[in-house]
Design brief:
The protein is of the alpha+beta class and 274 residues long. Helix content is 23%, strand content 34%. The protein folds into 2 domains: 111 residues, Gyrase A, domain 2 (2-Layer Sandwich); 118 residues, Beta Complex (RNA Polymerase Alpha Subunit, Chain A, domain 2), CATH 2.170.120. The chain starts with a strand and ends with a helix. Bound molecules: iron/sulfur cluster (2 copies) and zinc ion.
């Protein structure tokens, strides 16, 4: 397997993965979505709520606020030595909110949540929680814990994780008369006309829709779009809970551990039979 980083910043990562098959990349995608833990609010004690939203809706909205996660500093509740349903300092973070509309109507934002750990805070201060009119109040205590996407989507560390085959575009220069129809129809502007020649401008953004083949007046089309079945473009967008690189490395570690467990079980079963 060969991996090339095509793009990387604080939230996005795009990789080119060569020499693997679909089940492997899909297993990696599913591990990212379902198994890599992150922090989310999962218990809320409402002390006072005179807003128009019911307690349950506010609790649900709080749960969906992405929180910056410290994977090294906290345990998953089910793996924490405290074995307590309530949790301890190693498996739970408390956040408080005390908001009141004193002057007039106002919006309560995620930035008003005060965390006991300054490293576990909302990724954005600008996520609206509720709107209060004059004299309405919202006071609560929330508890965030590590969890996995397979239990609830609020624990998914990514807002998007996809893959697609690596496109291959061939233009038969002998039969192409450079009419430009394929350039015009392409929704992703993959192709460009350079004097009397059609060239590929940005291969990676091709969606393999094959509209360019359908519109080509030549029979068979002078342009051919196909894909390499063992090369993939893997895209990941973090919610901000964890850096994209950490999400991928955690997913690989989890996948590796599960495969080792699988091999161990197969060996035990084989020994039992013999
Ligand atoms: S397959 Fe679709 S996206 Fe790709 S070059 Fe052709 S028209 Fe553009
Ligand atoms: S539509 Fe066909 S003939 Fe026209 S420029 Fe594209 S490949 Fe060439
Ligand atoms: Zn604990």
């Amino acid at each position: 397997m060969e991996i090339e980083v095509l793009e990387k910043n604080d939230v996005n990562m795009r990789l080119l993965i060569r020499g693997v098959d679909t089940p492997f990349v899909n297993a990696l995608r599913r591990t990212v979505l379902a198994e890599v833990p992150c922090m989310a609010i999962d218990e809320v004690v409402i002390i006072e709520n005179s807003s128009v939203l019911q307690d349950e809706i506010i609790a649900h909205r709080l749960g969906l606020i992405p929180l910056k996660t410290d994977l090294n500093g906290y345990n998953l509740p089910e793996e924490c030595p405290c074995k307590s349903e309530f949790g301890c300092n190693l498996c739970r973070v408390s956040l408080t909110l005390d908001a009141e509309a004193k002057e007039g109507t106002r919006t309560v934002y995620s930035g008003e949540l005060i965390s006991e750990n300054p490293d576990i805070v909302p990724v954005s201060d600008k996520i609206p929680i509720v709107k209060l009119v004059k004299e309405q109040k919202l006071k609560l205590e929330a508890y965030a814990r590590l969890g996995k996407g397979k239990k609830h989507a609020k624990w998914q560390p990514v807002s998007m994780c996809t893959y697609k085959y690596y496109p291959q575009i061939k233009i038969d220069s002998k039969r192409c008369d450079a009419c430009g129809k394929c350039v015009e129809i392409c929704p992703r502007k993959v192709l460009t006309k350079n004097v009397n020649k059609i060239e590929v401008r940005d291969l990676i953004v091709c969606t393999l829709c094959q509209d360019c083949m359908d519109v080509c007046p030549q029979n068979p089309p002078a342009i051919d779009v196909s894909w390499d079945e063992n090369t993939f473009i893997f895209n990941l967008e973090s919610t901000g809970a964890l850096p994209p690189k950490r999400i991928i490395t955690e997913a690989i570690k989890i996948l590796d551990k599960r495969l080792k467990e699988f091999i161990k079980h197969v060996k035990v079963k084989t020994r039992e039979k013999s």
